[in-house]
Write a structure and sequence with these properties.
Number of strands: 2
Strand content: under 5%
Number of helices: 13
Largest sheet: 2 strands, antiparallel
Strand order of the largest sheet: 1-2
Bound molecules: Phenylacetyl coenzyme A
Order of helices and strands: HHHHHHHHHHEEHHH
Shape: globular
Mean pLDDT: 96
Structural class: mainly alpha
Helix content: 55-70%
Amino acid sequence: MADLNSLEAKFQEKIDNEIKIEPKDWMPEKYRQTLIRQISQHAHSEVVGMLPEGNWITRAPSLRRKVALLAKIQDEAGHGLYLYSAAETLGVERDDLIEQLHTGKAKYSSIFNYPTLTWADIGAVGWLVDGAAIMNQVMLTRTSYGPYSRAMVRICKEESFHQRQGYEILLTLSRGSEDQKRMLQDAVNRFWWPSLMMFGPSDKDSVHTAQAMKWKIKRKTNDELRQQFVDVCVDQARILGVTLPDPNLKWNEERGHYDFSEIDWDEFWNVVKGNGPCNKQRMDARIKAHEEGAWVREAAMAYAEKQAKRRKEETTQVA
Ligand code: FAQ
């Protein structure tokens, strides 16, 4: 017991001194489990997040828009891969993580259970969804676990591009016809609140935040990040000429922040529990893609095994 206590004390000392924890370092089992949970759910979100945007590849309004959207969606797949790899350094198998997603044991971000009904929604996803993701992920570049932190540095660079391409889509619509302006406002009306929900439950209801902050897995609380996001969006909305759908959104001189209305937490938990507008559709599409991709995984494994066998034979011949 004394040994465990001293290991834990040394571990916490490292964290307090901003020394990154690496895969082979000793770590408390709960730290490992928390990271597996968070990183794998983050990976699932990136991969499921490809679906609402994938819906618009064939309908993008120009070749230029199609190319940018395709590149963005491919980036999200890449983010999923970096994150699954980071999770694997904690001793879990990717197949098991994917199984947890497909059986509903693992969560993914609530935001991807909303539909993308118009082209303006693709802009709103880039501006608001990637914008919220970046706000959270910039903090995670400084997370205490080395492989997660390094994955986040690269992901943030790519997400910044995504956010700008989304904002530029909206900016173009904002300078267009009355119908285009209406479409823009409608997309913002539908995506504003779900984007605020991405930051998770309010601090008083967040079960993991306190410990995650102590271990510096998280550096800011859900409410701190949400507030930061609201504060930056107000000016950006003004430039687009859109109204954010909240009558209580008002600058508070004393706090130095914008006040905003209470989130509809019933809606949030309903979506998290699987009852959002597209939960079933998203999971069906993921499972179908996984099953139909089985031959690719088998071919890649067969090739890797063949290569390994050849290398072994060559080494034996040299010896
Ligand atoms: N949706 O105690 P907390 C992206 C769950 S990536 C669903 O506060 P924690 C890129 C939470 O898991 C977006 N579930 O938990 C992209 C926990 O349940 P559990 C994803 C949620 O972990 C853009 C329970 O509620 N980003 O968008 C949500 O301390 C465009 C209690 O919550 C990340 O995953 C939610 N919104 O804080 C891709 C970032 N919020 O696990 C394509 C990394 C909470 O006990 C297109 N993750 N829950 O069963 C994090 O920073 C944290 O995990 C939080 C939640 C902040 C999400």
